Structures are given as C-alpha cells and as structure tokens.
Amino acid sequence: MARLTTIREILEDRVPVGAMTIGGWIRTHRQSKRVSFIELSDGTCAGNLQLVLDPTNPDYQAVAAKLTTGASIRAEGELVLSPAKGQKYEFQAKALELVGEADPEQFPLQKKAHSLEFLREVLHLRPRTATMGAVLRVRSAAAFAIHRFFQDRGFFYLNSPIISTSDCEGAGQMFHVTTLNIDNPPRVNGKVDFAEDFFKEPASLTVSGQLEGEICAMGLSKIYTFGPTFRAENSNTTRHLAEFWMIEPEMAFYELEDNMSLAQEFVQAVIRELLEKCPKDLEFLAAQEWAQPGHISNLQSVAESQFTRLDYTEAISILEKSGRSFEYPVSWGIDLQSEHERYLTDDHVKGPVTVVNYPKDIKAFYMRLNEDGKTVRAMDVLVPRLGEIVGGSQREERHDVLLGKIRAMGLDESAYWWYLELRKFGTVPHSGFGLGFERLLMYVTGMQNIRDVIPFPRFPGFAKF
After folding, report:
1. Could you give the CA distance from residue 258 to residue 255 in angstroms, rounded to a whole number?
2. Which value, to the nearest 10 degrees, does the dihedral of the CA atoms of residues 10, 15, 17, 21 take?
3. Among 30-34, 115-119, 326-330, which is the least confidently predicted range?
C-alpha cells in the first residue's frame, strides 16, 4: 500500500506538488455534470483539502452515491496549485477508492453545527469534528512541551504508582481498589477484613504522585511525574473530573522562592511553545462562540508578563478594600474562591499573580510551617480569566514538626511512616507543585468545560468507553 501524504504535510508546504496518495474522511461532497468536489479531512491539522474529480471517471461513478459526509476514502492523483481563491492547493484525483461507508440516515455528524453537549454523547465520533480535532492536537503538543521543559532542565521523569495505600491530600475522596466480594466481604469484628484482600491492606487509586515524587527527589534531586490521578469527589461541574492528568515536579534543595520561579517559567514556556507550534488550531478555537474575546492576546500577555507576588494576608486586605460584593465573604482564614482569584488577576493586578503564605488550617499537612506558626509556605499561581492554574509549596522537611501536623490533623501516622522516615535520613529543604493538565488545556484552548479537553471524560454518573 502506498504511503499516504497527510494534509498537514501539504498545507505546511512539506511536500512538493505532484503525484501522491491521500486518505481521510469526507466533510462535504458536491457534484455536477462537469466537475465534482470533495472536502477532505484527515485530522492531522485544522485545514481541509479540496479534491477535484471528473464525474466521468469510472472509479468515481461506481461510488458517487456513497461519497457522503463521514465516509472514508483513499485517492491517488496530482497535487496542484489551486486557481481558486482562499486555498493554495487542490488535489486532482485520478483514482478513487471508497474505504468505509457512512449512511447519511444514521451518521450523527452531518455537515452542520453541533453543540458541545451533543458531541459528549458521541465520544467515539467526536475526534472527527473540527473542534475536538483541534483540542486533541493541542493536547498532544502540550504534553510534548511539558516533557521538553523538564528534560531540558535536568529533571528525571518518574512513573508514580496508580494504585496506592497513601492519601496524599488526607481528604479521603478516593476510589477503592479491591478483589474482595463486595456483596459478601470477609469481616473481623464487624469490619471488612482487608487482610484477605489482594494487597492485604486497603488500597485506592492515587490522588497524587507527590509523596512518591518526594521519595525520588531525595535521591535524584529533580524529578517530575506526569500521569493520571483520581478523585471520588461528587462535583458535577465544568471544572471537575473524576479522572484527570497531573504534572508534579519535586525538587531537592528548592525553597519557596525557587519553586515560584520555576512555576512561572514552566507556565510561560508551555504557553509560548503552544502559540508557536499550534497557531492554526488555537486561532480556530479562539474564533468559536464560547471563547472569550482577546483569547490569543491574553495568552501572549501571560507568556511575557512578570508574575506579581502577593502575600495571602495582603491579598485578603485587597479583597476587603475592593468594594466588591463577593458571593463568598472575605476574611482572613478563608480559602480563596475563583471569584476572589479573578478579581486579583483581572481587576487589581491585570496580570498573573502568585499568592503565598496561606493559613495552615486550610492547607495540606505536608506544607512547611512558617515561623509565625499560623501560615505555611504554600503558593498558588493565578492567571487572568481562570484563577488558580498551579498549586504548590515548600514541603515540611523537619521530622518533629511534620509529625505534629499529622497528629493535629487526625491522620494515621502509621500510614506515613516512610514519609516521616525521609526526614530522619539526610533530610533537606525541598519543594514542588502540581498543575492539572486539563485545567491548563482549558486555559490555552479557551474551552469552557473540562469535559471537552480530554478524550474520554469521567465524572459522576459517567464512565463510558
């Protein structure tokens, strides 16, 4: 079988005009007595290619009635410069093969506008649409940019476990993993006997690779994880998924200042690379009705701006003096909500912000306690139009302080014996942060629902495919 030339190669001028073979899916088919046209997409780029066919061609006549939207074809012919306005090339098909039919009475993606809500009902066909195609190409480029960023800076890529016996966040919103008979599990003193289970103790899907990342950072200095994480949180919103991907670097000998600098550099580098590598896809997505005006210029601004740094206490003071009536009242000790974060970025600073030194009572046990005994060395990176995009902290490296925090939060210290032991043997200051991949993709693509930036979303009541 002849190698197929992709439409991306053609539109990016990577192949010369001349003879070639192409393949893809029909977007539209128009025919007349003198000439017929097929608009073809192969998913490799935002653009389509126009095929010009002679209606008297026997190959064409044999399948003309079946060349409907969604059908797949392979064509041999000649790529030539197009005399028509609005397109550089056209493909003059000499031989045509219908590879797969698509009955127009049943194929749900006819040439018309489809709502994003409808497309979520046909996930198996959604990648063929222009919108999802653009999103998935940006997603692929973003993943590559993330690996490039860390690899170029001497980080080692770590695969943290998907099945874990540790709850990093201490919130308990985890999916349990078991081989026990859930209808009749073995019990001891009225409780489930996990000693009879596969792992001999309770196990769950991971909520974060951070703790395991800290282990490896204590031996390799700088590592990052990039993998799936799971939260059994019953949040049926546009910003939550039950399964999503996280990027979590961990760095030995990094303090909070180092962590903030790396987070800013990371966000900006990824955005810059996507603006450079995916301009057509980002422009297409920015032109959709759900995208906010000035989307591309906002991304460019974030990629070039210096991130303003605000102490949490200062941020609360700014919010209290704003004169704004917030849905969630502002006072020292609250966890900042999206409306607060967006006021700081969009109205007060008019740019990206890093908020630091949060109250210890609203942050996780592993964050380093400040000398005031009330706050921890936590940081959140906020960007305009979204709010938080990165959350991180300097980790607590002092054994006794960490043990006290674990006990104060009512956590089972025996479950963290190894985490505590890291503080006994060669402990060092260290830091890290987490960035939700899908949250980043929402921001870069301008999509308004997180379910539209992942191929197969998982959320309450839905785990199909």
Report:
1. 5
2. -70
3. 30-34
Residue 365 CA to residue 450 CA, distance in Å, equals 28
Torsion of CA 124, 125, 129, 135, to 10 degrees: 10
Its pTM stands at: 0.95
- Provide the pLDDT confidence category of residue 102 given band limits of 50, 70 and 90: very high
| Cβ neighbours around 111 below 10 Å, total | 13
- Give whole-number Cα distances, 21 to 6, 10, 43, 59, 96, in Å: 9, 11, 16, 15, 10
Q: SS3 of 222, please?
A: strand
The DSSP 8-state label assigned to residue 367 in this structure reads: B
Strands, E assignment, 116-238: 156-158, 163-164, 176-177, 187-188, 191-192, 203-205, 222-230
The pair phi, psi for residue 367, each rounded to 5°, is -85, 140
Contacts of 41 (CB under 8 A, 6+ apart): 7, 24, 25, 27, 48, 49, 128, 130, 133
Please name which of 351, 364, 416 lies closest in space to residue 391, comparing C-alpha atoms.
364
Tens digit of each residue's pLDDT (9 = 90 or more) over 398-439? 999 999 999 999 988 888 999 999 999 999 999 999 999 999
What whole-number distance in Å separates Cα of residue 142 and Cα of residue 131?
A: 16
pLDDT at residue 111, rounded to an integer: 85
The token duo for 29 is 């088919």
> Which residues are within 8 A (CB) of 240 and not within 5 positions of it... i.e. 6 or more apart?
231, 233, 450, 459
CA atoms 174, 180, 181, 186: torsion sign: negative
Which residues, in sequence order, are CB contacts of 236 under 8 Å at separation 6+?
Answer: 459, 460, 461
